[in-house]
Amino acid sequence: MSTLYLMQQGATLRREQGRFLIEPPGNDLDEPCLEIPIQEIERILVLGNIQLTNAAISSCLEAQIPVVFLSRTGSYKGHLWSAELGDLKAEAAQFRCYSDPEFQLEMAKTLVWGKLVNSRQLLLRSHRRRQNEIVDAAIAGLTTDIRAVETVDNLESLRGYEGTAAARYFSAFGQLFTNTHFQFTTRNRRPPTDPVNSMLSFGYTLLFNNVMSLILAEGLNPYLGNLHRNDRKEMHLASDLMEEFRSPIVDSLVLTLINQQVIKPEDFVTAEHNGGVYLSDPGRRRFLREFEERICSLTQHPEVKAQVPYRRAIQLQVQCYKRALLDSVPYEAFLRSA
User: Fold this and answer.
1) I want to staple 251 with a disulfide (CB 3.0 to 4.6 A). Which of 124, 247, 264, 329 is the partner?
2) Is the pTM of this model over 0.70?
3) 3-state secondary structure labels for all residues of 79-117
4) What is the per-residue pLDDT across 228-254, written as a single tens digit (0 to 9) for each?
Protein backbone atom coordinates (compact mmCIF):
# COMPACT_ATOMS: atom_id res chain seq x y z
CA MET A 1 0.00 0.00 0.00
CA SER A 2 1.38 3.40 -0.93
CA THR A 3 0.68 7.11 -1.30
CA LEU A 4 -0.13 8.40 -4.78
CA TYR A 5 1.15 11.95 -5.36
CA LEU A 6 -0.45 13.74 -8.31
CA MET A 7 1.45 16.88 -9.31
CA GLN A 8 1.65 17.05 -13.14
CA GLN A 9 -0.43 20.14 -13.86
CA GLY A 10 -3.37 19.45 -16.17
CA ALA A 11 -3.26 15.67 -15.71
CA THR A 12 -6.43 13.63 -15.14
CA LEU A 13 -7.00 10.68 -12.81
CA ARG A 14 -9.43 8.16 -14.33
CA ARG A 15 -10.69 4.73 -13.41
CA GLU A 16 -10.65 1.79 -15.76
CA GLN A 17 -11.86 -1.48 -14.30
CA GLY A 18 -9.69 -2.11 -11.22
CA ARG A 19 -7.03 0.45 -12.07
CA PHE A 20 -6.36 4.14 -11.79
CA LEU A 21 -5.11 5.75 -15.00
CA ILE A 22 -3.12 8.97 -14.80
CA GLU A 23 -3.66 10.67 -18.14
CA PRO A 24 -1.13 13.37 -19.13
CA PRO A 25 -2.41 16.86 -19.95
CA GLY A 26 -3.93 17.46 -23.39
CA ASN A 27 -4.17 13.74 -24.22
CA ASP A 28 -0.51 13.84 -25.24
CA LEU A 29 -0.12 10.67 -27.31
CA ASP A 30 3.65 10.78 -26.92
CA GLU A 31 3.34 10.35 -23.15
CA PRO A 32 1.67 7.09 -22.06
CA CYS A 33 -0.86 6.85 -19.26
CA LEU A 34 0.40 5.53 -15.95
CA GLU A 35 -1.66 2.59 -14.68
CA ILE A 36 -1.86 1.68 -10.98
CA PRO A 37 -4.05 -1.02 -9.39
CA ILE A 38 -6.56 0.65 -7.07
CA GLN A 39 -5.93 -1.94 -4.36
CA GLU A 40 -2.30 -0.77 -4.05
CA ILE A 41 -3.24 2.83 -3.14
CA GLU A 42 -3.75 3.84 0.48
CA ARG A 43 -4.05 7.63 0.11
CA ILE A 44 -3.90 10.25 -2.67
CA LEU A 45 -2.41 13.74 -2.46
CA VAL A 46 -3.41 16.13 -5.25
CA LEU A 47 -1.09 19.13 -5.72
CA GLY A 48 -2.50 21.89 -7.89
CA ASN A 49 -4.53 21.67 -11.09
CA ILE A 50 -5.26 17.95 -11.52
CA GLN A 51 -8.68 16.60 -12.49
CA LEU A 52 -10.38 13.58 -10.91
CA THR A 53 -13.24 12.02 -12.88
CA ASN A 54 -16.48 11.09 -11.14
CA ALA A 55 -15.59 7.42 -11.56
CA ALA A 56 -12.21 7.96 -9.89
CA ILE A 57 -13.82 9.85 -6.99
CA SER A 58 -16.43 7.10 -6.62
CA SER A 59 -13.68 4.48 -6.49
CA CYS A 60 -11.86 6.42 -3.77
CA LEU A 61 -15.03 6.58 -1.69
CA GLU A 62 -15.81 2.89 -2.22
CA ALA A 63 -12.25 1.79 -1.41
CA GLN A 64 -12.03 4.25 1.53
CA ILE A 65 -9.02 6.02 0.05
CA PRO A 66 -8.68 9.52 1.51
CA VAL A 67 -7.93 12.23 -1.06
CA VAL A 68 -6.19 15.40 0.12
CA PHE A 69 -6.18 18.51 -2.06
CA LEU A 70 -3.19 20.86 -1.81
CA SER A 71 -2.12 23.92 -3.73
CA ARG A 72 0.74 23.52 -6.17
CA THR A 73 3.12 24.76 -3.47
CA GLY A 74 1.73 22.38 -0.85
CA SER A 75 -0.82 24.46 1.09
CA TYR A 76 -3.79 22.46 2.39
CA LYS A 77 -7.10 23.08 0.56
CA GLY A 78 -9.48 20.31 1.55
CA HIS A 79 -10.06 16.58 1.61
CA LEU A 80 -12.40 13.81 0.55
CA TRP A 81 -13.17 10.65 2.46
CA SER A 82 -16.01 8.23 3.02
CA ALA A 83 -18.27 8.77 6.03
CA GLU A 84 -18.20 4.99 6.50
CA LEU A 85 -14.70 5.33 7.93
CA GLY A 86 -16.19 6.64 11.19
CA ASP A 87 -16.27 4.62 14.42
CA LEU A 88 -19.23 5.98 16.38
CA LYS A 89 -18.15 4.41 19.68
CA ALA A 90 -14.69 5.91 19.40
CA GLU A 91 -16.06 9.30 18.34
CA ALA A 92 -18.44 9.33 21.30
CA ALA A 93 -15.45 8.67 23.57
CA GLN A 94 -13.61 11.52 21.87
CA PHE A 95 -16.41 13.96 22.71
CA ARG A 96 -16.46 12.79 26.35
CA CYS A 97 -12.70 13.21 26.68
CA TYR A 98 -12.85 16.51 24.82
CA SER A 99 -14.79 17.88 27.80
CA ASP A 100 -12.50 16.26 30.38
CA PRO A 101 -9.83 18.78 31.52
CA GLU A 102 -7.70 16.09 33.19
CA PHE A 103 -7.58 13.92 30.07
CA GLN A 104 -6.88 16.95 27.91
CA LEU A 105 -3.96 18.13 30.05
CA GLU A 106 -2.36 14.70 30.45
CA MET A 107 -2.56 14.01 26.71
CA ALA A 108 -1.17 17.43 25.85
CA LYS A 109 1.69 17.01 28.35
CA THR A 110 2.63 13.63 26.89
CA LEU A 111 2.60 14.95 23.34
CA VAL A 112 4.74 17.99 24.16
CA TRP A 113 7.11 15.89 26.26
CA GLY A 114 7.60 13.44 23.39
CA LYS A 115 8.13 16.25 20.91
CA LEU A 116 10.78 17.92 23.08
CA VAL A 117 12.62 14.67 23.82
CA ASN A 118 12.79 13.86 20.10
CA SER A 119 13.91 17.42 19.30
CA ARG A 120 16.72 17.18 21.83
CA GLN A 121 17.64 13.76 20.45
CA LEU A 122 18.08 15.19 16.94
CA LEU A 123 20.40 17.89 18.26
CA LEU A 124 22.41 15.32 20.20
CA ARG A 125 22.71 12.95 17.22
CA SER A 126 23.72 15.69 14.81
CA HIS A 127 26.12 17.38 17.23
CA ARG A 128 28.25 14.42 18.31
CA ARG A 129 31.27 15.15 16.12
CA ARG A 130 31.56 18.91 16.60
CA GLN A 131 31.20 21.52 19.30
CA ASN A 132 28.90 24.52 19.10
CA GLU A 133 27.94 26.73 22.03
CA ILE A 134 24.51 27.55 20.62
CA VAL A 135 23.64 23.86 20.21
CA ASP A 136 25.04 23.00 23.64
CA ALA A 137 22.93 25.75 25.20
CA ALA A 138 19.80 24.58 23.35
CA ILE A 139 20.31 21.00 24.51
CA ALA A 140 20.69 22.17 28.12
CA GLY A 141 17.64 24.43 27.77
CA LEU A 142 15.53 21.66 26.27
CA THR A 143 16.52 19.38 29.15
CA THR A 144 15.18 22.00 31.57
CA ASP A 145 12.01 22.44 29.48
CA ILE A 146 11.38 18.69 29.46
CA ARG A 147 11.56 18.56 33.26
CA ALA A 148 9.21 21.52 33.51
CA VAL A 149 6.66 19.91 31.18
CA GLU A 150 6.52 16.86 33.43
CA THR A 151 5.21 18.94 36.35
CA VAL A 152 3.12 21.62 34.62
CA ASP A 153 -0.50 21.78 35.83
CA ASN A 154 -2.28 23.84 33.15
CA LEU A 155 -2.44 24.13 29.38
CA GLU A 156 -1.44 27.78 29.21
CA SER A 157 1.86 27.11 30.97
CA LEU A 158 2.41 23.98 28.88
CA ARG A 159 2.01 25.91 25.64
CA GLY A 160 4.38 28.55 26.98
CA TYR A 161 7.08 25.94 27.61
CA GLU A 162 6.47 24.46 24.17
CA GLY A 163 6.94 27.87 22.53
CA THR A 164 10.12 28.57 24.47
CA ALA A 165 11.50 25.14 23.63
CA ALA A 166 10.70 25.56 19.93
CA ALA A 167 12.63 28.84 19.85
CA ARG A 168 15.63 27.15 21.51
CA TYR A 169 15.48 24.21 19.16
CA PHE A 170 15.25 26.15 15.90
CA SER A 171 18.03 28.53 16.93
CA ALA A 172 20.26 25.45 17.24
CA PHE A 173 18.84 23.67 14.19
CA GLY A 174 20.34 26.28 11.90
CA GLN A 175 23.79 25.51 13.33
CA LEU A 176 23.64 21.92 12.08
CA PHE A 177 23.92 22.74 8.38
CA THR A 178 27.34 22.09 6.88
CA ASN A 179 26.26 23.19 3.40
CA THR A 180 27.14 26.90 3.41
CA HIS A 181 24.72 27.63 0.54
CA PHE A 182 21.83 27.38 3.03
CA GLN A 183 21.25 29.58 6.07
CA PHE A 184 18.56 29.26 8.74
CA THR A 185 18.03 31.63 11.66
CA THR A 186 14.36 31.41 12.66
CA ARG A 187 11.20 29.50 11.81
CA ASN A 188 8.72 31.36 9.59
CA ARG A 189 5.81 30.38 7.36
CA ARG A 190 2.78 31.69 5.48
CA PRO A 191 4.76 32.28 3.39
CA PRO A 192 8.16 30.72 4.04
CA THR A 193 10.84 33.27 3.23
CA ASP A 194 13.87 31.03 2.68
CA PRO A 195 14.62 27.53 1.33
CA VAL A 196 14.97 25.80 4.71
CA ASN A 197 11.63 27.13 5.97
CA SER A 198 10.10 26.20 2.63
CA MET A 199 11.23 22.58 3.00
CA LEU A 200 10.15 22.41 6.64
CA SER A 201 6.67 23.74 5.80
CA PHE A 202 6.21 21.36 2.87
CA GLY A 203 7.47 18.42 4.91
CA TYR A 204 5.15 19.22 7.82
CA THR A 205 2.23 19.44 5.38
CA LEU A 206 3.04 15.98 4.04
CA LEU A 207 3.44 14.58 7.55
CA PHE A 208 0.17 16.18 8.67
CA ASN A 209 -1.75 14.57 5.82
CA ASN A 210 -0.22 11.16 6.48
CA VAL A 211 -1.26 11.43 10.13
CA MET A 212 -4.73 12.62 9.14
CA SER A 213 -5.30 9.68 6.79
CA LEU A 214 -4.28 7.21 9.50
CA ILE A 215 -6.60 8.90 12.00
CA LEU A 216 -9.45 8.52 9.52
CA ALA A 217 -8.55 4.86 8.93
CA GLU A 218 -9.05 4.23 12.67
CA GLY A 219 -12.49 5.85 12.56
CA LEU A 220 -11.52 8.82 14.74
CA ASN A 221 -12.70 12.39 14.35
CA PRO A 222 -9.62 14.42 13.29
CA TYR A 223 -11.10 17.69 14.56
CA LEU A 224 -11.16 16.84 18.29
CA GLY A 225 -7.70 17.58 19.67
CA ASN A 226 -6.20 18.16 23.10
CA LEU A 227 -3.06 20.25 22.71
CA HIS A 228 -4.35 22.17 19.69
CA ARG A 229 -7.81 23.63 20.29
CA ASN A 230 -9.59 26.77 19.16
CA ASP A 231 -12.97 27.91 17.88
CA ARG A 232 -12.10 27.24 14.23
CA LYS A 233 -12.99 23.90 12.70
CA GLU A 234 -9.49 22.58 12.04
CA MET A 235 -8.04 19.08 12.28
CA HIS A 236 -6.55 19.54 15.72
CA LEU A 237 -6.08 15.83 16.45
CA ALA A 238 -3.87 15.46 13.36
CA SER A 239 -1.86 18.46 14.56
CA ASP A 240 -1.56 16.82 17.99
CA LEU A 241 -0.41 13.39 16.86
CA MET A 242 2.14 14.65 14.35
CA GLU A 243 4.12 16.53 17.03
CA GLU A 244 6.24 13.55 18.10
CA PHE A 245 7.23 12.86 14.49
CA ARG A 246 8.29 16.34 13.35
CA SER A 247 11.97 16.03 14.15
CA PRO A 248 12.43 12.28 13.46
CA ILE A 249 10.83 12.47 10.01
CA VAL A 250 10.81 16.02 8.61
CA ASP A 251 13.60 17.90 10.39
CA SER A 252 16.10 15.07 9.99
CA LEU A 253 15.13 14.72 6.33
CA VAL A 254 15.64 18.44 5.62
CA LEU A 255 19.00 18.33 7.37
CA THR A 256 20.12 15.35 5.30
CA LEU A 257 18.89 16.69 1.97
CA ILE A 258 20.74 19.97 2.46
CA ASN A 259 23.99 18.65 3.93
CA GLN A 260 24.25 15.91 1.30
CA GLN A 261 23.35 18.42 -1.43
CA VAL A 262 20.40 16.39 -2.68
CA ILE A 263 18.44 19.66 -2.75
CA LYS A 264 20.31 22.70 -4.08
CA PRO A 265 19.65 26.46 -4.12
CA GLU A 266 18.52 26.31 -7.75
CA ASP A 267 15.67 23.99 -6.72
CA PHE A 268 13.71 26.98 -5.32
CA VAL A 269 11.66 29.77 -6.85
CA THR A 270 10.21 32.98 -5.39
CA ALA A 271 6.49 33.58 -5.87
CA GLU A 272 5.56 36.98 -7.27
CA HIS A 273 2.19 37.21 -5.46
CA ASN A 274 3.53 36.95 -1.89
CA GLY A 275 7.33 36.81 -2.04
CA GLY A 276 7.34 33.30 -0.59
CA VAL A 277 10.10 30.82 -1.42
CA TYR A 278 8.97 27.42 -2.70
CA LEU A 279 10.43 24.29 -4.23
CA SER A 280 10.37 24.21 -8.03
CA ASP A 281 8.54 21.33 -9.71
CA PRO A 282 11.72 19.24 -10.14
CA GLY A 283 12.78 20.00 -6.57
CA ARG A 284 9.32 19.11 -5.27
CA ARG A 285 9.38 15.77 -7.07
CA ARG A 286 12.76 15.00 -5.55
CA PHE A 287 11.55 16.04 -2.09
CA LEU A 288 8.43 13.86 -2.39
CA ARG A 289 10.54 10.87 -3.38
CA GLU A 290 12.90 11.42 -0.44
CA PHE A 291 10.00 12.02 1.97
CA GLU A 292 8.42 8.71 1.00
CA GLU A 293 11.74 6.96 1.49
CA ARG A 294 12.08 8.57 4.91
CA ILE A 295 8.58 7.77 6.16
CA CYS A 296 9.04 4.18 4.97
CA SER A 297 12.42 3.81 6.73
CA LEU A 298 12.56 1.64 9.84
CA THR A 299 12.42 2.62 13.49
CA GLN A 300 11.80 0.98 16.83
CA HIS A 301 8.36 0.97 18.46
CA PRO A 302 7.73 -0.49 21.94
CA GLU A 303 4.61 -2.37 20.82
CA VAL A 304 6.42 -4.62 18.34
CA LYS A 305 9.68 -6.55 18.62
CA ALA A 306 10.88 -5.94 15.06
CA GLN A 307 11.57 -2.56 13.52
CA VAL A 308 8.66 -0.98 11.65
CA PRO A 309 8.39 1.79 9.03
CA TYR A 310 7.73 5.26 10.45
CA ARG A 311 4.30 5.26 8.79
CA ARG A 312 3.46 2.10 10.74
CA ALA A 313 4.78 3.73 13.92
CA ILE A 314 2.37 6.63 13.34
CA GLN A 315 -0.48 4.15 12.90
CA LEU A 316 0.47 2.44 16.17
CA GLN A 317 0.42 5.81 17.96
CA VAL A 318 -3.05 6.54 16.56
CA GLN A 319 -4.16 3.16 17.87
CA CYS A 320 -2.59 3.94 21.25
CA TYR A 321 -4.60 7.14 21.35
CA LYS A 322 -7.77 5.22 20.50
CA ARG A 323 -7.11 2.82 23.40
CA ALA A 324 -6.62 5.79 25.70
CA LEU A 325 -10.07 7.00 24.70
CA LEU A 326 -11.91 3.68 24.89
CA ASP A 327 -10.05 1.75 27.58
CA SER A 328 -8.36 4.48 29.66
CA VAL A 329 -4.94 3.05 28.81
CA PRO A 330 -2.34 5.81 29.34
CA TYR A 331 -0.97 7.17 26.09
CA GLU A 332 2.80 6.83 25.77
CA ALA A 333 4.78 9.17 23.52
CA PHE A 334 6.74 7.87 20.57
CA LEU A 335 10.46 8.30 21.18
CA ARG A 336 13.01 8.01 18.42
CA SER A 337 15.58 5.36 19.33
CA ALA A 338 19.19 6.49 19.71
Assistant:
1) 247
2) yes
3) EECCHHHCCHHHHHHHHHHHCCHHHHHHHHHHHHHHHHH
4) 877 778 889 999 999 999 999 999 999
